[in-house]
Design brief:
- Helix 3 packs across helix 4 and helix 4 crosses helix 5.
- The chain has a 7-stranded mixed beta sheet, with helices on both faces. Strands 2-1-4-5 form a 4-stranded antiparallel beta sheet, with helices on one face.
- The chain contains 10 helices and 11 strands.
- Strand 1 and strand 2 (20-30) form a beta hairpin.
- It is of the alpha/beta class and 268 residues long.
- Helices cover 37% and strands 23% of the residues.
- The structure holds adenosine-5'-diphosphate and magnesium ion.
- Magnesium ion (MG) is lined by residues 46-47, 87, 163.
């Protein structure tokens, strides 16, 4: 990471998919070592933003940089500094845990001795060392998620992107993933950029951004935002600014907007 730079810097970022504006003029920064929660209902533009920051998607306009490197002009440098835990499962289920990590390390051009050492370290870290030779298809959901975390840590990233890392996990696995996050923050000062639908998890973040329909509607420390809005808790705040309309069964923009106070923006 280049010193003196924010971990993540986004300025007037826009992404359009033929006619649909998925990311609409987003600007924010994330400091080194910060745990940043990126919140919003389904379709808000969270995964699209993460894909741009991880150099997997080009923006329509605006700027993004990670670890001091420009996501469009220096994608290789960005990738060297980041780890990604995708929203969708992305392991090769036909391979063993070991083979999945080996493949990842080779893609990242990690030399064999270093790669092998890291594979053991990360597998022990997520407590899958004893299962390293098992086929991933035989793993439980929680084990697969832990293996994805291990893979994201292989090249010791400065910035870790986690897209809904705890969705569908039992409380034990969820707790374990949070223990790993806390440990990485203390030991390596890793920066976290994560999305979650759990408001309990969001309240653990240093700061959160709340977006809807590609727009940033709130940004600040959870406690400051709650106080400023006079909300009961983060869930109350979230619903008061994004409304009650459901998103994943084709709700129209009108329906969504009727449910919320338009243009409400809170910075705390
Ligand atoms: N490749 C794509 N082509 C067309 N539309 C897309 C594509 N990816 C995402 N979208 C649309 O962009 C919007 C934001 O999606 P996404 O970033 O996945 O939201 P979130 O992760 O917050 O649920 C949605 O309306 C989604 O349907
Ligand atoms: Mg998403």
């Amino acid at each position: 990471m280049l010193s003196g730079h924010p971990a993540i810097e986004v300025s007037h970022l826009v992404k359009q998919f033929d006619g649909l504006t998925a990311v609409n003029d987003l600007s924010f920064t994330v400091g080194p070592g910060e745990l940043f929660g990126f919140l919003g209902p389904n379709g808000a533009g969270k995964t699209t933003t993460i894909s741009i920051l991880c150099t997997l998607l080009a923006p329509t306009s605006g700027k993004a940089s990670v670890a001091g490197f420009d996501c469009m002009r220096e994608p290789v440098r960005v990738r060297e500094n980041i780890g990604i835990i995708f929203q969708e499962p992305s392991l090769d289920e036909r391979l063993t845990a070991w083979e999945n990590l080996e493949f990842h390390g080779m893609i990242y051009h990690m030399a064999k001795p270093h790669r092998r050492r890291r594979m053991e370290e990360v597998l022990r870290f997520v407590e899958l060392w004893d299962r390293r030779d098992s086929i991933v298809r035989s793993f439980s959901g929680g084990m697969k998620r832990r293996l994805e975390v291990a893979r994201g840590l292989m090249h010791q990233p400065r910035v870790l992107f986690l897209d809904e890392p705890t969705i569908g996990l039992d409380p034990q696995t969820r707790h374990r993933i949070w223990t790993l996050i806390d440990q990485l923050r203390v030991e390596h000062h890793t920066t976290f950029f994560m999305t979650t639908h759990s408001m309990e998890e969001a309240e653990r973040c240093d700061r959160v951004a709340i977006l809807d329909q590609g727009r940033l509607l709130a940004l600040g420390r959870p406690s400051d935002l709650i106080a400023k809005q006079g909300a009961k808790n983060l869930e109350g705040l979230f619903l008061s600014i994004t409304g009650h309309a459901l998103r994943d069964n084709g709700a129209s923009e009108g329906e969504i907007n009727r449910g919320r106070v338009r243009k409400m923006r809170i910075w705390a």
